[in-house]
Amino acid sequence: MPTSQATQTEARRLRDLFAARGALVIKADVLQSAGTLLDLYGEDIRARSYVTSDPLRGEMVLRPDFTVPVVQMHMDAHAEPARYTYSGKVFRKQETDEARANEYVQVGYEVFDGQNPAAADAEVFAAVAQGLEGLPLRAATGDIGVLMDAVRGLQTTDDRKAALLRHIWRPARFRALLKRFGSDQVPPARAALLAAEDPFVEAGPEIGLRTREEVTARIDALRADADAAPISGEEIALIDAILNLRETSTNVLSHLRDIAVDMPAIGGAVGRLDARLGALADRAVDVDALPFEGSYGRTSLEYYDGFVFGFYASDRPDLPPVATGGRYDALTARLGQGRVVPAVGGVIRPDLALELT
């Protein structure tokens, strides 16, 4: 699908705006390794991406976003601190909403700088806001790190915490797991399986890719889970209190400080939020009016693990977000083979910005 001249012009303006902040202009291949994305996000990514096969390079995917290739490039370069900007098309399947484009231009600004993460968060938010200045937009913010720290601090097994962390970006599945882990009842079919001395007696011939040893290990894990004490109602109520937060940022900070009294595990995340709000205020952002949602950012691609934000058309609820962004430190560790580089970035859709001018 051709890109309009107006969109190309606006994309260049935004890219040049970010370059003027010291960002290096870079390019990323349209075709990316599918293996990298599958390793990061599992088979779910196939439902959202265009996958193809190359006779020499193997399974490939049309670029669903720029963040993964930018992180790979940065981790190979070992240059820090660093700032990057880019402009180009991304490709996303839209199986449930025909009105949304399946290819569109993104312009991004990425900062790799661990000296002051709060200041970097504020820098990216302010840069994106400057690019959208004058448009009728409302901001949304959140912090995935608060929920992740809350889960890590639960008084339950490591396996249960790992399952909840894995499904933070799938709210319905997360809720179902939390409900199950908060109950001491085992579903009847599972109870019958676990009660059998030899679950393979009437199993029939072995088919599929899983070995008998893998199935046995899974059954042992289910037995251990069945023996685990349920997560307390008090802890589940604290998780719910975090997810239900929907207030101005300064009021949310006050609520989170109260929650941290009963859930000390979120203390570090609360401190980071406090520092970020101070850094945003230093950049003339009205944090007393800046919205914060405890569950914001949980339906994005699964690499955000801290501050998240978006800008939405005030009077056009039919439009997707005009801009989104957030912190993704954990992604740098996964792509950097354990070497962590604090990183935060944001992207703007120039075509949507033009609709609001």
From TrEMBL:
Signal peptide stretch: none
Positions with a binding annotation for L-histidine: 65-67, 92, 106, 110, 298, 303-304
Alphabetically ordered keywords of this record: Glycosyltransferase, Transferase
Domain (Aminoacyl-transfer RNA synthetases class-II family profile): residue spans on this chain: 14-316
Entry GO CC: cytoplasm
Keyword Kinase: no
GO molecular function, one term: glycosyltransferase activity
A biological process from GO: histidyl-tRNA aminoacylation
UniProt-listed InterPro entries: aa-tRNA-synth_II (IPR006195), aa-tRNA-synth_II/BPL/LPL (IPR045864), HisRS-like_core (IPR041715), HisRS/HisZ (IPR004516)
Transferase is among the record's keywords: yes
Subunit comment: Homodimer.
NCBIfam families per record: PRK12295.1-5
Cross-referenced PANTHER family: HISTIDINE--TRNA LIGASE, MITOCHONDRIAL-RELATED, HISTIDYL-TRNA SYNTHETASE
Name of this chain's protein: Histidine--tRNA ligase
